[in-house]
Amino acid sequence: MGGDFAPEAAVMGAIAAAAAIGEDSRIVLFGAKDQIEAILERENCPLSTFDIVPTTEVIEMSDHPAKAFTQKPNSSITVGFGYLAKGLIDGFASAGSTGAMMVGSMYAVKPIEGVMRPTISSLIPTVTGRSGLILDVGLNVDCKPEVLYQYAILGSVYAQHVLGIENPRVALLNIGEEREKGNAQAKATHELMANNNGEFNFVGNIEGTQLFTSKIADVIVCDGFMGNVVLKQAESLYHIMKKMGVENPFLDGMNYEVVGGTPVLGINAPVVIGHGCSTPLAIKNMILQTEKTIKADLTEKLKKVINKN
Amino acid sequence: MGGDFAPEAAVMGAIAAAAAIGEDSRIVLFGAKDQIEAILERENCPLSTFDIVPTTEVIEMSDHPAKAFTQKPNSSITVGFGYLAKGLIDGFASAGSTGAMMVGSMYAVKPIEGVMRPTISSLIPTVTGRSGLILDVGLNVDCKPEVLYQYAILGSVYAQHVLGIENPRVALLNIGEEREKGNAQAKATHELMANNNGEFNFVGNIEGTQLFTSKIADVIVCDGFMGNVVLKQAESLYHIMKKMGVENPFLDGMNYEVVGGTPVLGINAPVVIGHGCSTPLAIKNMILQTEKTIKADLTEKLKKVINKN
């Protein structure tokens, strides 16, 4: 149970998700058992809807993520990752401390062998209604071309198997279409990507003008410094427009509540990180996204592709 | 006369600007004299409204900018920069080849002594109605911290004297508020900026969420790789929303036609670069922006501040 509005929002989101997931899926809740059960009872939700693993500690946003992960062994995040690492659950999602979620991803679940740097990605809306994927969105802020190259692979596999896009078009975020455009990092990365031996469907550079058009690409690769700004800019425009009374389904796609969470890609199990300020709707979508990733058997598919190299 | 719709759009824009500029200002047109005069006559605009300097060549978008600048000495851009360098005009603006405009800025007008890298900036709208300034937006894609530091000075002076913002707040575009956030470039730049000895009003980092809120900053500093993507993303959202029938004054501020053009900062005379696809409204605003920069005596003010160091 993580997030600024935990456990209330988390439990309410889980109740909504339970009604939407497949019959063969089951949601396991990690958190303060008494509080969780009180909310379930209040909502007339049978306790048997969920497995509940009681935890007693909370990793605060002000805690040092790495220290808290080990010093608070009874927090929902630490216990959850323990279950995930042991295979007692198939995927894990939380709107708690992003830092602690990454610590768990890197040290409990661990990167897939051969993955240089796992990454966090995000769905972005396009005018066609079909989502695109952008990565990295804040984890690795200084990326070597080889790392961005691998992001292209990770994003491509996710887009194909979780988003259901056949032969996803992968582009490099840049300031011009031509291959000689961009900073040193972009130029070197373009060279690498252009010679990818069919590992992914590279369509070249994409400019900021085409991020949401779906005309160029399904998967957009950039470093976490750029991706984080792009994502936050989009989100802020959603909020500004909303406040101004503009209702628009395309803009709604920039709402983190709809998006659900950011999948961590390149590790040995499905992990999805929600926003700290996640509402019940956001939690619900985060859980559904995790279920989808599990059912797509993404981890095995990533392992296969990465170890082909 | 430059731009995809030249000379038609350029002349129409100049006619509109002529009606709006100060009585002590005069617009000089560089271009195909016959064509310009034909449009003026058709529009019942007295030929005496403008000075016309006839030019016979055109730098095409497909031309190599540096080569074309010297090999087409009779192009409007080359002739215009000649006039500017000789002080025959006080500022120069064109929607022609951006590359050739930069060649003219760097080699005919030249950087102000002490400026490491001149920059191109852009106004961005905020929800308050007051514009912010972002720089660089595409010229220098790999920036040392020292260069970004100078951008803070250039942007601050422009915001104060051209935009009329007292003690403009300068922020570094980053992925978190805390000083230790960001990539290697951002961290080193933050350190430098935080110790600026009162050269500008540094308010710390700004995230993508705050670009348009005006809550944090008036001047936003980033390298040209980031700035270009941010700007194009904003523009594309304006166009997408417009196509979807959303009319909104805030979004209109992301329309390049309203913005006018990108001022080149850090060179020895006012130069404004318009979009290649500039319409008459864009040309008009580009000219008015140039007039404003001239009247603010920006170049002298920049020289004073830069040479203080």
Order of helices and strands of chain A: HEHEHHEHEEHEHEEHHHEEHH
Shape of chain A: globular
Please mark out the parts of chain A with pLDDT under 50 across 5 or more consecutive residues, or reply none.
none
CATH superfamily annotation of the largest domain in chain A: Isopropylmalate Dehydrogenase
Q: Note the quaternary state here.
A: homodimer
Strand order of the largest sheet of chain A: 3-10-9-4-5-8-6-7
Helix content of chain A: 40-55%
Total domain units of chain A: 2
Terminal CA distance of chain A reads 38 Å
Rg of chain A computed from alpha carbons, rounded to a whole number of angstroms:
19 Å
Enumerate how many helices of chain A there are, as a single number: 12
Average pLDDT level of chain A:
93
Give a quick account of the main beta sheet of chain A: strands, pairing sense, barrel closure.
8 strands, mixed
What's the level 1 CATH class of the largest domain in chain A? Alpha Beta
Strand fraction of chain A: 5-15%
Structural class of chain A: alpha/beta
- The CATH topology of the largest domain in chain A: Isopropylmalate Dehydrogenase
E-strand count of chain A: 10
CATH architectural name of the largest domain in chain A: 3-Layer(aba) Sandwich
Task: Give the gist of this structure.
The first copy, chain A, has 309 residues and is an alpha/beta fold.
Describe this structure in words.
The structure is a homodimer of 309-residue chains. The first copy, chain A, has 309 residues and is an alpha/beta fold. Chain A has 2 domains: 1-115 and 266-296, Isopropylmalate Dehydrogenase, CATH 3.40.718.10; 116-255, 3-Layer(aba) Sandwich (Isopropylmalate Dehydrogenase), CATH 3.40.718. The first copy, chain A, has 12 helices and 10 strands. In chain A, β4 (119-124) and β5 form a beta hairpin. The model of chain A has no long low-confidence stretch (mean pLDDT 93).
